[in-house]
Amino acid sequence: MAAARKSRGTRVRHLGLAGRTGTVLLAAGIGVLSPASVALPAWAQQSSVAPDAGGYYATPPPVDESKKPNDEGKPDKTYEKKTECVQRSKLGGDQVDIKSRPWGQEYLQIQKVHELMRGATDSIGGGVKVAVIDTGVTAHPYFKNPVEPGGDYVATPSGKQPGLEDCDGHGTEVAGIIAANPPDPTIGFRGVAPDATIMSIRQSSQNYEEAEKKAEPPPPPPSSSNAAPPGSSNNQPGSELPPSSQGNGAVGGAADGTAPGQDKGGRQQEQGKTAGTLKTLAQAVVRAVDKGAQVINMSVDNCRRADGKITLGEQQLQAAVNYAVKQDVVVVAAAGNVGENCPQNDQPDPKSPKMIVTPPWFSDDVLSVAAIDDTGGVADFSVNGPWVSVAAPGTKIISLDPAEGSSSLANLTIEGGKDPGAIQGTSFAAPYVAGLAALVRAKFPGLKAREVMNRIKATAQHPAAPGGRDNFVGFGVIDPIAALTAIVPSEADKAKAVPLPANLPPSNDRDPAPMIVALAGTGGGLVALLVTLFVVHSVRRNRPTTATGRKSP
Fold first, then answer.
1. pLDDT digits (tens, 9 = 90+) for 56-97
2. 134 among known catalytic residues
3. Catalytic pick from 114, 152, 168, 170?
4. How far is it, in rounded angstroms, from Cα 80 to Cα 78?
5. Cα–Cα distance between 208 and 100 in angstroms, integer?
6. Known active-site residue 47
7. Which of 343, 269, 345, 349 lies closest to 313, judged by CA?
8. Which of 406, 427, 507, 538 is catalytic?
9. Which candidate in 134, 168, 365, 401 is catalytic?
């Protein structure tokens, strides 16, 4: 009998050892899966070089200042207008007044921002000059201050100052989001900084293309009595009018639109024979700086496949934007739109983007702006990337009608005779940030360009991601009220807090990091407690039984 009990006790002790071993392994497994040791998801990881590839992917090489171009102040090639310029839509009969306020303005509380600025500075961006490097800006009557001609790298149309023709319409809409100021108070649309001054530099156009080289005329025939007198036509080869003066009638997406036809890829540089190269874009940046701009907006970009290299044009643009920031100019650029020539960066490893977009790639010196839609989520056309700085509204846009002679607004675009569609793109998210930069410069004149850029990023509505940023919206959607009222520790001696008016909501300047750490710690504590309880329970169950039937101590 004793032997049987001994045998039974031995078997129990063996089971207890196995149980304890299983418990330890289970606890170790739970520990491995605890929040503190879970590997970061791919989108949260950052690196400047693709794994095992070498070269430049997420970030470019260091700036080569010797590549800063000299500003030639003229087109790099001879361009001719191949498509008629944007015209006012006839869809609604006469001029249609758009009274509603864009959702983007409501989302960013622009009206309250204006009230705050009037109370603090007596103007809303007054005294700040914003250079718009784009397709030109039409001198629309809704600009409070006259648009300054800054230069033209496309052509010099007769009768207009350089930069003040916008054949495509894109630049006028961009500039309107920055500084439009309709005199009619019943119109809801307003620019973010309506008292700012716009300087227009026309650098791109999809309606202008590289002029075709004309064949040399054959030598004149030998002199004879039948030869045509000098100056007569006689239908000799080469005597036809050039295509540009014949009015080829090729009216494209701008035919009857309230806005120009926006191609899917945005205002792309170096696409086919259309006007706009990285070389002239770099020169335009240098020109804007030298002509006194305090903020630069570039809603134009170049998208190419990542290959670990950097082109000469990119080096020139990189040196130009670095020059701008060193000369105390804030540079803002659109993050780029997904299109046929620019697929989305949706690869598994964000450290190795398959597409590079410039100028956003140079995010050390550029505020790169992604677009959100009216749900508050990132727009599906907005290109992702490690260079994205912040985000702003980029859909269902209302802005100035860019048609020559118009004194109204536009909210639709017609492309190639198709049905009207909403105006959208990261092109129109960028000017929200450029306008905010102008307000920050007006309210905090002591801040340098990098400090203005840091303030806009630090006060944005950070996403729930490591470090408070991700590759979709960067540091988050801009928060203009916070950018104009919050105290940023790095500049506490330069930017003083201003009390908010009673009817304004508090600024959204809370740092999410403490809350994230607290929640992570709480979750870890609960896991540890559950593991402890499980181990104690398992040990007590598997404790060997004594001869009296009781558990041994």
1. 999 999 999 999 999 999 999 999 999 889 887 665 544 556
2. yes
3. 170
4. 7
5. 34
6. no
7. 269
8. 427
9. 134
